[in-house]
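INFO  loader      accepted 1 record
INFO  loader      residues=342
INFO  predictor   begin
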Amino acid sequence: MFRTKIAFILLFIMVAAIAGCGGDGKKESGESMDTPVTDKADFVARVNGVVIGDKEVSQELAMLSQQMVGRVSAQQLDSMEPMLKQQAVANLVNRALLAQAADRENITVTAEQVDAKYEEIRANFPDEEAFVAQLGRSNMTPEEFRVEVDRGIRLEELVGLKTAGVAAPTEKEARKFYDSNTQRFSTPERIRTSHILIKVEETDSELVREQKKTKIEELHARLVAGEDIATLATENSDCPSASKGGDLGFFGKGQMVRPFEDAAFALEPGEISPVVETKFGYHVIEVTEKEESSVTSFEDARDSIIDYLAEMKKQDEMNSYMTSLRERAEVEYADSAFAPAM
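INFO  predictor   done
INFO  writer      dumping tokens
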């Protein structure tokens, strides 16, 4: 029901690597990322003497950019690169601070723990070859990935240590959250439809428009007579959904153009609409399923809310802890543009 944030530790370490954008655990020279370096070559930031280099930043940037693919256009993504690069540096600085804190807490993991987590991640791939190939796209060997797994487990244990004293949410807090966020627990009415579209272009003449309208009316008559909409859509529809027999899946109000929506929501499952005209052309619609609106009760949502609030409390605790680490740290940036705003 809710997306929690405390898992950001594993996101930074393991998910980044396995997605093809993680750090390789080594400097170009072969030095560990935890080794203090004084040479300013390949230098972006220094955290208590530990260097963050260009390679780590480029890999973190690739991960952040990959997360934006499909959400923004390529042009927008290009314009966002300075902001994403600043975020990449911030992530890496935070990661270094946490790793150093784990060292001070003497947090260690066993080889058995690393092996178990390594195998758990590897099991997400169809075979060893696919797994190694994905690591290769991160410029990482399986042995180097084990180092990152080790570090990820240590940071996860650090989070557990620092949030162990966080009080569990109370029933009263859960109820207050439920009452203040009723929209989260409401599911609006949804319908599933199939349709046939005869597309009309702005350049179509009146004669062509009339011919297309005649065609959709003929198809409508065949549907009313009992022919299968999936077959007719596959053979006649100009919508990409023709490849799925005209199936548009489930949608709620506000997701389709208004004439289409009004006609579709007026139908019951199994009913066929009259010919509907939209800016795309002429449609015939059949509703195949309908889900009524519903509200999840507090009793049914209670456990999920408490889990969510517990994670948010831990996140707040970790935010405070990160602030304290940054305040005590010596962090140097090669370019002041990467420094956080004061």
